[in-house]
Write a structure and sequence with these properties.
With 721 residues, the protein is mainly beta. The chain is built from 3 helices and 41 strands.
């Protein structure tokens, strides 16, 4: 774009502003938190060289903020941090536009009012810190006409009208080698698909939306899962150069080229479902490293105080770091379009959403591009120039050697949906609707399936009439698959209803004896349950598992089960060998045999149905296996006690039966499988005499241990009346 064209656009924009006096706007994304912005460039600075902004005299002058920039987040409260009173831009700005830090999401509601349950705030402890989660903000970004005719020039407006001339609109001179570092105070300690990201000259969530484009010189200079951040350590990002999560730590990324201009700005973001707390941000030139103070990160108190974003004070009603959804329960299922886009993608405050099966904070549906161009209403989803995934755990498929999805597509399956509207933005150049398997990018080759990952590509011309019933039956998939639906940039609109995924010939392993599942039924696990079966026979099973939690408030495990229709039965198995049980973790981390009324997730532990188990946990010094049994009580709590006599090689048995008006459960053990000794008997059991459908099987929730358990001589027998 040449200077003359830039000036023409600015003249038109100025004329529009003069006619309307001002222009207001708020963010258009579901997570938008930007307040209304008043833009006034009626009398732009006409002299000088534009402060390095270039592109002609119509551009206001930018005054650089000197480096090093040392930020300790010492504002009185959250809104104060984003005000010019705390730190102002060096450049001239209209009233209300002069804040050096600008929230794009996580502090304000769409109407500009404060979000009292926001996800980005300053902590309430004496040494204040920044808590960033499902939110983003910029550093040193000015309000510039280069953003173009947009609602909010500080949000989703890059690369803007200066793209052809490489123009940005920030106050940081990043035209020489620089370094960004900060102390990590706290971060999730379990696996997360949410990323901590830093961008240069980019106020969007897409790396390519910048004058720097993508690739090695791309605008995103930092991108790591939040759970990989190390509390008490300083992240160090050298541009150009290496990135580490602690001084002298493992290399996590490297940028070979400089990313920045004489007028750059920084954007920091934590994507949906994640959070991080950090402090002592330092932006400096590499030539000046060592001359600027770097506080001891190890001295930071990770027990930061929650804060009410409205008051900045310690508040027990402040937002929790994570929210929980309802775990995905497998196929068949229909995409729930009864609410809105915020709820579907896990962005709505307090609203239930579908989550990844083993991570209740991770939404099952994720926008991969164009969140502001996806709407959900009237039981239908509409989109243009946008894409989203179904069941993706978040690992970029272009970098993954295996799919990272939550849907088992290892058996024949069907995808179906109804298209009720489909149009192109330009009829002469038809837009395309595409469905991918195991690919969350726009390149069909970025998948283990190669170019086959793009299952179908439709234009409006391919749709004979509306409504159009689309049915797909791909002949490939894995046990860890996901889908992506995309409307490319030439699609004017596509509206879809009744999105379904189902098996055509029965679920994977439907003919197997024991069906494996990673279950998250109540509470949270430090390590998500995960397991597999290396042997799966009617009378013998070899189980391998890690993670899970079976405490008095958690019910998460790997479970290989069969469904039985019996009210009175006994379930028996020999625990013939155990390996890998090396870490003493206590009785919350157990394994053995179990019977459950159902496998439905619940909001609270007290809502769990009847369940009973018998097996082992690991405890003591040195670590040893200790026999154990537990069951769910009608009061909403568990009862647990040891079975001291139980040893590896013994048999265990669970008996459940009607005893008059009550349901009773008994546990037994045996050294030879013939003579059984009763370990306990109770009618203090959450099940009732109406409970006549059960899931029985082999389970493990071993926590840090990675165990292998061999079960033999398994039997399920009815009890005589």
């Amino acid at each position: 774009m040449n200077t003359k064209l830039i000036n023409t656009k600015l003249t038109l924009l100025s004329s529009l502003i003069i006619a309307s006096s001002f222009m207001t706007g708020c963010g258009s994304e579901p997570d938008s938190s930007a307040p209304d912005i008043i833009i006034n460039i009626e009398n732009p600075d006409g002299g000088g060289d534009g402060g390095g902004d270039g592109g002609g005299s119509d551009l206001p002058e930018i005054a650089n903020t000197d480096l090093p920039l040392i930020e300790t987040f010492g504002a009185n409260d959250t809104t104060g941090f984003f005000s010019a009173d705390y730190k102002a831009l060096a450049s001239e700005a209209e009233e209300g536009e002069g804040g050096f830090y600008y929230s794009m999401a996580g502090v304000y509601m769409a109407d500009g009012s404060l979000d009292t349950e926001g996800s980005n705030w300053i902590t309430a402890d004496a040494d204040q810190k920044m808590r960033l989660g499902d939110a983003r903000f910029t550093i040193a970004q000015t309000v510039s006409p280069l953003a173009g005719d947009v609602a909010d020039p500080r949000k989703d407006s890059t690369p803007g009208d200066g793209v052809d001339d490489g123009l940005s609109w920030g106050e940081l001179d990043l035209s020489q080698d620089y370094k960004i570092s900060f102390c990590v105070v706290a971060a999730p300690d379990t696996a997360s698909s949410s990323d901590f990201q830093i961008y240069v000259d980019n106020n969007t969530t897409s790396e390519a939306s910048s004058i720097h484009g993508g690739g090695n010189v791309g605008s995103r200079i930092f991108n790591v899962p939040v759970n990989t951040l190390v509390p008490g350590k300083r992240v160090e990002i050298n541009i150009p150069g290496d990135t580490t999560l602690e001084d002298g730590g493992t290399l996590v990324a490297s940028k070979p080229d400089l990313v920045g201009t004489e007028n750059s700005f920084i954007a920091m973001r934590v994507s949906s479902g994640g959070w991080a707390v950090f402090d002592d941000l330092l932006i400096e030139y590499q030539s000046d490293v060592g001359n600027n103070p770097q506080p001891d990160c190890a001295s930071k108190d990770s027990n930061y105080k929650l804060v009410n974003p409205a008051t900045g004070g310690d508040d027990e009603n402040a937002p929790e770091p994570e929210v929980e959804g309802t775990p995905f329960g497998g196929l068949p299922f229909t995409v729930d379009l009864t609410s809105d886009a915020d709820t579907l993608f896990g962005e709505a405050d307090g609203a239930d959403f579908l989550s990844i099966s083993n991570d209740r904070a991770d939404p099952f549906y994720k926008v991969t591009s164009g969140s502001s161009r996806i709407t959900v209403e009237n039981n239908a989803l509409s989109m243009n120039n946008a894409r989203f995934t179904i069941g993706d755990t978040g690992v970029p498929s272009a970098e993954a050697t295996n799919p990272s999805g939550d849907i088992d597509l290892s058996a024949p399956y069907r995808i179906s949906m109804t298209i009720t509207d489909f149009s192109s933005a330009d009829a002469a150049d038809p837009g395309k609707f595409q469905v991918y398997i195991d690919n969350n990018t726009t390149s069909s080759g970025n998948s283990i399936h190669g170019g086959d990952s793009k299952v179908i590509e439709l234009t409006p011309d391919d749709v004979s009439s509306l409504p159009y019933e689309l049915t797909l039956e791909p002949e490939f998939g894995t046990a860890n698959s996901f889908l992506q639906l995309r409307a490319d940039s030439r699609v004017g609109n596509i509206t879809i209803e009744n999105i379904k995924i189902e098996y055509t010939d029965g679920a994977p392993g439907a003919d197997a004896e024991w069906m494996p599942n990673d279950l998250n039924l109540a509470g949270e696990s430090d390590i998500a349950p995960a397991g597999s079966l290396s042997e799966n026979e009617a009378f013998s099973v070899t189980l391998e598992a890690t993670g899970g939690n079976m405490s008095s408030s958690n019910h998460n495990m790997f479970f290989a089960s069969q469904k039985i229709e019996m009210s009175d039965f006994m379930f028996t198995a020999q625990i013939s060998s155990v390996t890998g049980a090396d870490i003493a973790t206590g009785n919350a981390y157990r394994f053995g045999i179990m019977a459950m009324e159902n496998m439905d997730p619940v909001a609270d532990f007290a809502d769990l149905p009847g369940w009973a188990d018998a097996g082992f946990y690991v405890d003591g010094d040195p670590a040893a296996l200790i026999g154990s049994r537990a069951q769910m009580k009608p009061s909403g709590s568990r009862s647990r006690s040891d079975i001291p006599e139980l040893e590896v090689g013994d048999y265990v048995r669970i008996e459940i039966y009607d005893d008059g008006a009550e349901k009773r459960v008994k546990r037994y053990y045996s050294k030879d499988g013939i003579d059984f000794v009763q370990a306990n008997s109770t009618s203090d059991f959450a099940a009732t005499t109406d409970s006549d459908t059960w899931y029985v099987g082999l389970y493990a929730a071993p926590g840090e241990n990675n165990i292998t358990v061999e079960f033999d001589n398994i039997s399920i027998d009815p009890l005589a009346p």
